[in-house]
Amino acid sequence: MTPTLVRLRALMHKELQAIVGDKQSLRLLIMPVIIQLLLFPFAATLEVTNNTLAIVDDDGGAASAELIQRLTQTPAFTRVVRLTSEAEARSYIDRRRALIVLRVPARFSESVARGEPEPIQIILDGRRSNSAQIAMAYIQDILAGLPLAHIERRPDGDAIAIRHWYNENLEYYRFILPSLVAIITTVSALIVTAMSIAREREQGTLDQLLVSPLTPFLIFVGKAAPAIIVALIQASIILVGSVLGYGVPFQGSLLLLYACIVAYAGALIGVGLMISSVCSTQQQAFLGVFLFTMPAIVLSGYVTPVDNMPYWLQIATWANPVRHFILIAKAVYLKAAVFQDFAANVVALLIIGVVNSGFALWVFHRRLS
Amino acid sequence: MNVQTRRLLTLCHKETLQIVRDPSTLLIALAFPLVLLFVFATGVNLDSTVVPLGVVLEDSSPQARRFAETLAGTPSFRVSTGHDVREMGDRLRASAIRAFVIVRADFSYRFLNGYAPTPTLQVITDGAEPNTASFAAAYVRGAYEVWLREEMKRQGRPLPSGYTLENRAWFNPSTLSRNFLLPGSVTIIMTVVGALLTALVVAREWERGTMEALLAAGISRFELVACKLIPYFGLGLIAYVLCIVVTTWVFGVPLRGSIPVLMLVGATFLGSALGLGLLLSTALRSQYNAAQAALNIAFLPAMMLSGFVFEISSMPWPIRAFTTIVPARYFVAAMQTLFQAGDIWPVLWPALFGLGLAAVGFIGWTFLITRRRLE
């Protein structure tokens, strides 16, 4: 073994000791993974369920009775309240007690019997316009299936067949689980690299490292190793939990995903080193980590799709490693994607890693001389 | 002025000097919220705009081509055509398109000669993006409906009208998702700013050894907690006002509630956010660990469990129960109501109560675990 390797091994040993030796920081690396794995997949849903539908029935005829009866059968509305006036409806919406108020016009049943149904009025809570619109789409589906007297059946029947690949019932937890791998490793890998260098600098131990025979490059490698290990362990916990706990089968190549996790950790380490190279205190490094993490997560497709962003922003997100890895994790996990499908994203991750660590190394050397 | 007040003022003065001298604190309070607000305003959008859609035409009849034109004319699609279903499948897997439509060879024949039980249009979406997938499916249905009416009219047998809905959205008539997402994102920003401001302050004193100097000066528990809260509270309020001004004036989100109520809600929330940061800092006593805890405890739950994007009422009950201890949840409800509906007290009272309880709880807890002795 060359002296360099011996030194490197000793350094990595020290870095791992810093994490494993401190019970508190070990807990902080493992607990959030488990809590988020338990909570977030259930929380992250844009489906609408368990809501209250309020109805103002000015008609009271047979057609409105049938309509109301059909509406109560969807899981979107578990509670139906009958109101008598529009004023009452307003206070229901105001107080967020109902998401939607449906108003059946007077003589509705008559108009249905004539075959020219009068429009049904719907009042939505615009504060929650997304949920309200999703709920309205459910209502529209129900209306489409409602028989209408005196009118011949539509000539086309079921002309359209819709299939959702990779996630047949569009369950949101299947979409969130692979992304969680990205989100959780982001936070840890950045903190492990950026904060630990800032801590050494603040406590003066960085100078000790620098006067040792270790080169800045080796010090960086020593800081990178624990970040990669932490990322791999956290990712494994989430993957095992997703497959065994949530029963979402892993479709692609596990080896490919792990290779990509290493590439992603590399990109994060680069960003972490870059942040730490321009900060002199832990407070500043902490701020740097937040300043990077929050926009990176918001603009990653984790909460709302990248496709919905303005075009220039979609281009700008190419500099965001989280975006690339979320795409890769979903593609490999859910879609059994092969390397060619996302080669460009892996290259982007590698570039982000190399450019940032190169910059950090340059700043480091300049400070030394 | 008695001695106690003067001492507290001196301590606050010291803390303020530290804030002013460290540019990073001012950056947190003033620049950071603006950057984030901009990111949220441009990057978070639930109104699906343009879906990349593939079309495979197996039928080359005029009807089928007119249907493809209808799809291409829908502003919600960016259409690319292909001939091979397998190639489209590969593109879907590679996320180059989010859905594709196969127009079967018997599409026009079936349309003209009566329908068979088998569908002649197949829509395949990328279920890995559920929101986009359901939008895409609905848009294709809509385009089909438009095409069908046109074709029936061409044949001289227009379709009868079915049930129709006439909808009005109160508070947000244009149903722009930005109008409810931005007041919600102010919540997330304030959660983070609050935690950032205080998460390190106590741990820093311990790590730098200056805590010993403070203790040697005979500082009381109350003074220690108060001097760490008051200056940051002021700074947090400035950040809050900044957020509101930008949300309303720059991004044009209507504000219907009154300013005093808005400030009251914001101040109460700030109390809970600063309290949480201070609690983490006091309990963990290490800047490194407090930083990590703040990201995991403040930022991520505020984003996922507050009702900011994901509706709380749609979550299963154990998660709903858990959200009751997330202060951001109350702030989101209050902010969405204040911005879009006005001062509606039946919504605001419970929110204020929850926030007040959280503030008192976090600060009280911090007070209890604040140590005045060196071990």
Structure description:
The complex is a heterodimer of chains A (369) and B (375). With 369 residues, chain A is an alpha/beta fold. Chain A has helices at 3-20, 23-43, 62-71, 86-94, 108-114, 129-144, 172-203, 205-211, 216-245, 254-278, 282-298, 311-316, 321-335, 343-368; strands at residues 51-57, 77-83, 100-104, 120-125, 160-165. In chain A, helix 3 links the parallel strand 1 and strand 2 (77-83). The longest helix of chain A is centred in the middle third of the chain and has 32 residues, at 172-203. Residues 149-153 of chain A have low confidence and may be disordered. Chain B is built from 15 helices and 5 strands. A 4-stranded mixed beta sheet of chain B has the order 2-1-3-4, sandwiched between helices. In chain B, strand 1 (51-57), helix 3 and strand 2 (77-82) form a beta-alpha-beta unit. Classes of the chains: A alpha/beta (369), B alpha/beta (375). Chains A and B meet through helix 2, helix 4, strand 4, helix 6 and strand 5 of A and helix 2, helix 4, strand 4, helix 6 and strand 5 of B.
Mean pLDDT of chain B: 84
Major β-sheet profile of chain A: 4 strands, mixed
How many strand elements of chain A?
5
**Total helical segments of chain B:** 15
- Please give the number of β-strands of chain B: 5
Number of domains of chain A: 2
Identify low-pLDDT runs of chain A. 149-153
- Order of strands, main sheet of chain B, comes to 2-1-3-4
